[in-house]
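Ticket #4471: structure output looks truncated?

Reporter: J.K.
Steps to reproduce: submitted the chain below (434 residues) through the standard prediction queue, then opened the result file.
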Amino acid sequence: MRTNIVHIGAGEWTYEIRAIVAIAEKMKELGLKVNMENIGDPVTKGEQIPLWMKEIVADLVMQDYTYGYCDTKGLKSTREFLANLTNQRDKAQISADDIIFFNGLGDAIQKVYGLLRREARVIGPSPTYSTHSSGEAAHAGTSPVTYRLDPDNNWYPDLDDLRLSVKYNPAIAAILIINPDNPTGAVYPERILREMIQIARDYDLFIIADEIYQNIVYNGEATKPISDLVEDVPAISMKGISKELPWPGARCGWIEVYNADKDAMFAQYVQSILNSKMVEVCSTTLPQAAIPSVMSHPEYPKYLEERRDRYERYSNIAFDVLSRIPGIKVNRTNGAFYMSVVFEKRRLTNTQTLPIENPEVRQLVEQLVSEPDVQLDKRFIYYLLGAAGICVVPLSSFHTEELGFRITFLEQDEEEFTRIFNDLASYISDYMVS
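Returned output as attached by the reporter:
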């Protein structure tokens, strides 16, 4: 074309969590049975939505107002309910006007990054959830700026690395914190969060906190929402219902804004997010309407506790199985429903293989691993998929130099879950000695 129509950040959009699905589907067509352990959708993995929750939604479907537009920021009654929840629990005091709804956190993430001045950067964790790293990189038109999560220290942030990165890169305007973390399953103690907030305070930054897994913490661990610690530092917390209810198909998330009155430039930036949302009119009404009734239902606390108990059992099964394998680094997952496993340095090579019975599947895998510059952990996950029918995501796709994979804890049958992890352990060991 006579004019270049491609966005400067077009090449930064990657989402291996979904990309691996296309390959898994090809293998299914070739007769392979596949366990999809790649994506954080509890419903797809068979989680049953409780009847009382369905009845709330069914009742709302019969009410005409749920078919119409709502306020641009979202249903006022729901925003008032959520603000009251925060104000009861946390030190930060907000009003309904400090909450803006979006069509899922993916929508929120794109606007929060996309409406920043291009030269302003958000430093995020490495590894990090792909939607964040891609969104930040695309807005800037270059690779993400990151601080290291340490697999030798519970996947906690390397605070020295973070502080030095902020000190020597004046383009950094904000720090992204994902807590509980995706993809590692780490839960950050209060002392770490306070230090990260202090770095933001020292260098006049704001905080972006992805807290969508805030109520999925277990194994005796504890953390605090950013709103309870942020004090005078401007911050945005991202929350939603896709993982907690779970209702990912609702595409319903929101941001809570803290301390917009403390900084005029931050307030102007938040207003630009609202203005952008106003152009779209509003977000989907029905799921917003369900939130107060679901979260205040007498069965809801019990429902959350049952889910946490199951993830805790699965976390310990997974850790007990994989921690026995030499050559990999495994941390016990304490929040969300993911585990990230790292191969030790020089444990992966470009000659390792696994036996694949189906000749057509084997041919496909050999074709995939022969592609130029294929990452060594991606090579492993292709062989694992072809040999074992276990679909995971290469850790290198989460913008990190660590080589490994992320796997979910969403299989509903505990016996099947245990089998998958025992098989996984066996295939990891076989691959490393092949």
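Triage note (M.O.): checked the attachment and the full token line is present. The first helix runs from residue 16 to 29.
Status: closed, working as intended.
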